[in-house]
Fold this protein.
Amino acid sequence: MWTKALKIEGMTCPSCAAGIEKTLNQLKGVQIKVSYPEAKGDLKVRGNASLESLIETIEGKGYKVSSLNDHEPAIPEATPAKKTAAVINSTWQSLAAVRRPLPVVLGPSKKVPG
């Protein structure tokens, strides 16, 4: 699966956005949510559809399309095993910190009478 934000220019009304959604959402594995006020579309694709062919489809309806950015997460989602390993590592680091000797400040030594 991949996602892409598209800038879509030339829409003159909300029906334009609905028409783009209707056309692309009929394609297998393709889902798009188009915002007329923002002039953008959020595209999600599962399968073999290429970005170029989808852009050509939108442009074939009379709109100008360009890519805004990739919607890839900056940090890949951690698997359960990686999450568990991170928790264990963090716990061991905390325990190691507790075991370290703390500096002790002693006051002046006094002799105990006795």
In short: Residues 2-70 form a domain with the Alpha-Beta Plaits fold (CATH 3.30.70.100). The longest helix spans residues 80-99. The beta strands are 2-9, 30-35, 40-45, 64-70.
